[in-house]
Amino acid sequence: MRMRLAGAGAALLVLLCVPAAYGQEKPTLEGCKEHVSLAPADAGVIGLLSTPAIPPPTMVFAAQDTKKINQWDLPPKVAAWKDRPAATELAHEWEDLNRAWHGAKPGDTTKTVTSAVYRPYELLNVAPRDWQDLQKWMTKEIAKQLPGACYDEQKANYVFVAGAVRDPTAATGNGNPGRTLQYSQTAGQPQGEGLGPGGHPGNSTGHNSVTDEFAAGSSSNDPSVYACVYLYRAQGSARQSVPVYYYCHAASSLKSSLGTMLKYISKQGLP
């Protein structure tokens, strides 16, 4: 009897001493591998974009001409910022487009054309309550879409910057994109005489202006308004000067655009 008990005791002792790696691995609390936060778009973000040339008021369908250039600023798919042309190159494209609007053939610099009117993209205001709801939604979505990442504004090494941007060249409800410029002038908001990005005459303070209100969670019915998201590398509240990825969707919501960016990052991995 004593021998059997001793044998059973020895077997029990052996089982207790088997390393955890031999069987099921013991779960460990490693914490968050990456820290992510959400911030509203600001003048610094908008200032990275080119300054569009406004089509002449008589050109009702000029928005189609601007589409190709605008997509470098408002990409319909998640794009790498490093693939975007330099600001000077985009500035030359806007100049060439304005010449084409006034009958100058490509490469013809002898024809005198009307000077282009430039107007920067506008950043729309997001109501504080909507932004709070967006932050709560983002915190949950990060946990779902990016395993190992946690929402932490203090420790963030990646920042998703989101905002609503209005394209001044897009056709408005009356079908004439030039009317937007005319309205701003008659409403007591004439274009400034300073220089916009790329050395173009334009509204030098336009990149700092915040107008209207945009519902963070609901879709915009205005096709000239884009819900844009930029992913930056960061250290706490300080982010790098340019984003890694960016994406904009017309007449959409910030939640929708953020969701698209998160799905893309979940497949590609954080840069």
Radius of gyration: 27 Å
Give the N-to-C terminal Cα separation. 66 Å
The helix content is 25-40%
Low-pLDDT runs: 1-29, 172-208
According to DSSP, the number of beta strands is 9
Report on the biggest sheet: 9 strands, mixed
Shape: elongated
- Mean pLDDT, to the nearest integer, reads 78
Number of helices: 7
Structural category is: alpha/beta
How many separate domains? 1
Describe the protein in words:
This protein has 271 residues and is α/β, with parallel strands linked by helices. The chain has one domain (34-268). The protein contains seven helices and nine strands. Helix 3 packs antiparallel against helix 4 (87-101) and helix 5 packs parallel to helix 7. The protein is elongated, with a radius of gyration of 27 Å. The model is unreliable at 1-29 and 172-208 (pLDDT under 50).
Topology (SSEs and partners):
Elements: H1 2-17, E1 34-40, H2 43-46, H3 63-73, E2 79-80, H4 87-101, E3 122-126, H5 128-145, E4 149-151, E5 158-166, H6 178-186, E6 210-214, E7 225-235, E8 238-239, E9 245-250, H7 254-268
Parallel strand pairs: 1-4, 1-5, 3-6
Antiparallel strand pairs: 2-9, 3-5, 5-7, 7-8, 7-9
